[in-house]
């Protein structure tokens, strides 16, 4: 039997009546005068006065004693007023429009609300399985944003936000790795650490600009010793070192401080610079004013002194702080990437931002008029709408790969398990496989992302399955050896009769609010079950769901369902996804990169992408399986697939003798 | 009579000076900020009582109010951790002991990971990590409660921590 609950001790401190001691007596005609009067026998008036004053003196003594304890109370009312209006100006609004994307909700791990959560007894076997074989991650500890990606003297360089001390965010430095092919990475020494007053509280995100004369400019955000966000300039200590191991910081740092009207904590993540015909370099920096996310543009010629331009590159009310903004051209015609400074009639410009308050990356396509410095979105009614990825994908950053003439995109993929599991396993976060980015010339209204072709070099053995029929309500096992490191390409067709017969509906489908793969419709869901075990007690369905709209037109949705991905209850169990454009005569197709605890999924050639973290307890190692499934009520689905086993990328520290 | 009147007047004047101090913590402007901030959290009363009883809230902006709430979270977690350790020294049934050991791990994660991350993120100016850390603290407390198959000696503590986590996360969200 327990004697006392210490929370009762806590409640004493919480009790509001004690927080506001009220031991003085109110002035004349208080209740005490009535009580006391009846207890005494002295002449009434004198007695009243004597007792009254005595009590008042006691009260005064109390007031002095207690007032003395709370002596540091005299606030500067004006200062409070100023800060309070700026931070409380408006109710947080939802972003202006998200189209019909059925993506992740705003809260970080909202799925835990109302659900019984128990800490799963993760053991080392389960946890060590979670490490990826061919995705970039440091050997241990925490990672977040990709920084300064570039190609130089035969090597791809990748930097990243890293905590050298533990598997949670903090003490951030710049990690560094290099690779010949964007896949086989070699860890190098830390590039930058917080050793100056202007980055003492954080060497944060930044971007590289490669100048025509061969110099490399690295602009990055520093959190100063007073936690002011400033922009700093750094450059390689030795340009003839292809591995760019050592970096110098400009002695005149910081080169940019928050301008008037911008809060000292709302000024970070400078972009790669682009050159305009007025002979100036331009950079963009995200910020906010009240709850309106904005992007500032600066002009510079030497990257040491800057001029803030009058207009904003873009702004959307109600979206909060804009982090890691990115701005780059895409070609309307060629299937190639463009240098960041490219422009012309055959060029559209993509503006992208990471939204601090909802942890997703959004982009919009528009036209950039460099003369006026204005960028206008193709769809001005929607502020910022499309997502790069409907799963976990944040703080993404692109660069122009001049080696192969393509625009390549990196995205930070955080964990979606519990933090205690991260502490147990000693690491947190991976990066996406770098993706090429192109304008989808068939639709004109979205981008296409696709894993860089070098990932294909990891393919080992393959198995092909031709026209496997999956009847309504059935599951078909796919006989492959292992199922934890795979590259899968699958196409699906539905029988024509079912498509014609299916009744209309007037309810708009949404992946995240649906019942997942278990919710049967006439024309879906159907797709693959990855990281499943034989008994299907654990499974991660990746699927299409076709709905017929009121107008009789078919609309296709593409989802990844985590609700049964693991028996553990302390992992994220959301359903990710969105609608995906499917053009006439196109087959439904999907590519999956399965790599232990990460699955990257690309539908319709990369029109809709979903990255998911999966933490099975049973469907691991040799027990993991792959299935086709069709949970539709009416349609039969036919699928053809090619499945490759994927090799490890052997990501490891650079060894001078071996590697160069 | 005149003496009594004099005493009365003197002490009335002195009380007017000391009255705000004796009330405890906050000036009217600060109170408005606290109330407006707390209205945007799921547990107004929990929020207000914690903030108003901390004298630092009178000079605070929203970031500092968030830090005060994280401090309260830390205090609760520390107290519960100490209580768990005390209980574990006693004679316990197997399933209660197992539950408490689990909780010790979970509360350790709150104190070693969540709280420091939240404080650093708020102080250095990347508050989204503080939101995640605050949410995670609540999840750990919830997991702790689920670790007991029968009776839980920590129900009140766990609930209290979940409440403060929810409030802390909501305050941080105002900064994003």
Tell me about this structure.
The complex is a heterodimer of chains A (660) and B (176). Chain A is mainly beta and 660 residues long. Helix content of chain A is 12%, strand content 39%. Chain A starts with 5 loop residues before the first helix and ends with a helix. Chain B has a domain at 70-173: Invertase/pectin methylesterase inhibitor family protein (Butyryl-CoA Dehydrogenase, subunit A, domain 3). Helix content of chain B is 78%, strand content 0%. Chain B has helices at 2-22, 28-39, 44-52, 62-88, 94-124, 128-146, 155-173. In chain B, helix 4 runs antiparallel to helix 7 (155-173). Chain B is globular and about 75 Å long. Chains A and B meet through helix 1, helix 4, helix 5 and helix 7 of A and helix 1, helix 2, helix 3, helix 4 and helix 5 of B. Chain A: Its EC number is 3.2.1.26. Chain A: Belongs to the glycosyl hydrolase 32 family. Chain A: Pfam families: Glyco_hydro_32C (PF08244), Glyco_hydro_32N (PF00251), INV_N (PF11837). Chain A: Residues 135-451 form the Glycosyl hydrolase family 32 N-terminal domain.
Percentage of residues in helical conformation of chain A: 10-25%
Write down the overall mean pLDDT of chain B. 90
Poorly predicted runs of chain B: none
Class derived from helix and strand content of chain A: mainly beta
State the helix count of chain A. 9
Mean pLDDT of chain A: 86
Oligomer: heterodimer
CATH topology name of the domain at 70-173 in chain B: Butyryl-CoA Dehydrogenase, subunit A, domain 3
Return Rg of chain B in Å.
21 Å
Q: Can you tell me the residue ranges of chain A where pLDDT is under 50 for at least 5 consecutive residues?
A: 1-42, 67-111
Tally of strands of chain B: 0
Q: Would you identify the CATH architecture of the domain at 70-173 in chain B?
A: Up-down Bundle
Major sheet attributes of chain B: none
Largest sheet of chain A: 6 strands, mixed
């Amino acid at each position: 039997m327990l004697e006392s609950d210490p929370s009762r001790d806590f409640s004493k401190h919480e009790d509001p009546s004690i927080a506001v001691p009220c031991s003085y007596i109110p002035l004349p005609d208080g209740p005490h005068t009535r009580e006391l009067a009846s207890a005494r026998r002295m002449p009434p008036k004198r007695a009243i006065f004597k007792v009254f004053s005595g009590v008042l003196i006691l009260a005064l003594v109390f007031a002095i004693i207690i007032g003395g304890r709370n002596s540091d109370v005299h606030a500067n009312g004006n200062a409070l007023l100023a800060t309070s209006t700026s931070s409380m100006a408006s109710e947080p609004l939802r972003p202006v429009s998200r189209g019909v994307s059925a993506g992740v909700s705003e809260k970080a791990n909202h799925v835990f609300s109302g659900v019984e959560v128990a800490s799963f007894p993760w053991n080392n076997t389960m946890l060590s399985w979670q490490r990826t074989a061919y995705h970039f991650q440091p050997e241990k500890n925490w990672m977040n944003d990709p920084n300064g990606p570039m190609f130089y003297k035969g090597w791809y360089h990748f930097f990243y936000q890293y905590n050298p001390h533990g598997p949670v965010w903090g003490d951030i430095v710049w990690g560094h790795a290099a690779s010949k092919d964007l896949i086989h990475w070699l860890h190098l020494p830390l590039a930058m650490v917080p050793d100056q007053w202007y980055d003492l509280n954080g060497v944060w995100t930044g971007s590289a600009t490669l100048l025509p004369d061969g110099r490399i400019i690295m602009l990055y955000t520093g959190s100063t010793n007073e936690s002011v966000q400033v922009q700093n300039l750094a450059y390689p200590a030795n340009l003839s070192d292809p591995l760019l191991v050592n970096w110098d910081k400009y002695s005149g740092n910081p080169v940019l401080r928050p301008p008037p009207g911008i809060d000292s904590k709302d000024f970070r993540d400078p972009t790669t610079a682009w050159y305009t015909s007025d002979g100036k370099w331009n950079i963009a920096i995200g910020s906010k004013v009240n709850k309106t996310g904005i992007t500032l543009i600066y002009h510079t010629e030497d990257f040491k002194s800057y001029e803030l331009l009058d207009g904003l590159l873009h702004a959307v009310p109600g979206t909060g702080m804009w982090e890691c903004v990115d701005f780059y051209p895409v070609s309307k015609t060629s299937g190639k990437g463009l240098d960041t400074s490219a422009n012309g009639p055959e060029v559209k410009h993509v503006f992208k931002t990471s939204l601090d308050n909802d942890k997703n990356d959004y982009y919009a396509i528009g036209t950039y008029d460099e003369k006026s410095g204005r960028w206008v979105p193709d769809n001005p009614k929607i502020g910022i709408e499309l997502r790069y990825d409907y799963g976990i994908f944040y703080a993404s950053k692109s660069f122009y790969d001049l080696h192969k003439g393509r625009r390549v995109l990196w995205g930070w993929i955080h964990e979606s398990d519990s933090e205690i599991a991260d502490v147990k396993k000693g690491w947190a976060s991976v990066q996406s496989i770098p993706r090429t980015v192109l304008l989808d010339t068939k639709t004109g209204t979205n981008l296409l992302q696709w894993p860089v072709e070098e990932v294909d070099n990891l393919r080992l053995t393959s198995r092909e399955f031709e026209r496997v029929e999956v009847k309504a309500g059935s599951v078909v096992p796919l006989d492959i050896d292992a199922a934890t490191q795979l590259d899968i390409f699958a196409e699906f067709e539905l029988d024509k009769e079912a498509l014609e017969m299916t009744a209309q509906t007037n309810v708009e489908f949404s992946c995240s609010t649906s019942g997942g793969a278990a919710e049967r419709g006439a024309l879906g869901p159907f797709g693959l079950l990855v990281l499943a075990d034989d008994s299907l007690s654990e499974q991660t369905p990746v699927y299409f769901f076709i709905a017929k709209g009121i107008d009789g037109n078919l609309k296709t949705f593409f989802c990844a369902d985590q609700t049964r991905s693991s028996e553990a209850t302390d992992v994220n169990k959301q359903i990710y996804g969105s609608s995906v454009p499917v053009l006439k005569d196109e087959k439904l197709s999907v590519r999956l990169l399965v790599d232990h605890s990460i699955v990257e999924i690309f539908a319709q050639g990369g029109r809709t992408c979903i990255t998911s973290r999966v933490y099975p307890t049973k469907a691991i190692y040799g027990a993991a399986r792959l299935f086709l499934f069709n949970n539709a009520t009416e349609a039969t689905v036919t699928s053809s697939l090619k499945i490759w086993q994927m090799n490890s990328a052997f990501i490891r520290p650079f060894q001078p003798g071996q590697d160069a | 009579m005149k003496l009594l009147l004099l005493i009365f007047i003197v002490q009335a004047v002195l009380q007017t000076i000391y009255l705000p101090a004796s009330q405890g913590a906050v000036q009217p402007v600060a109170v408005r900020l606290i109330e407006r901030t707390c209205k945007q959290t799921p547990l107004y009363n929990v929020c207000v009582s914690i903030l108003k009883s901390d004298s630092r809230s009178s000079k605070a902006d929203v970031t500092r109010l968030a830090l005060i709430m994280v401090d309260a979270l830390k205090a609760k977690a520390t107290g519960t951790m100490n209580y768990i350790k005390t209980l574990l020294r006693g004679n316990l049934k197997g399933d209660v002991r197992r539950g408490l050991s689990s909780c010790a791990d979970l509360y350790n994660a709150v104190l070693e990971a969540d709280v420091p991350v939240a404080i650093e993120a708020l102080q250095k100016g990347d508050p989204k990590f503080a939101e995640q850390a605050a949410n995670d603290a609540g999840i750990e407390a919830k997991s702790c409660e689920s670790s007991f198959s029968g009776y839980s000696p920590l129900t009140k503590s766990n609930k209290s921590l979940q409440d403060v986590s929810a409030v802390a996360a909501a305050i941080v969200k105002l900064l994003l």
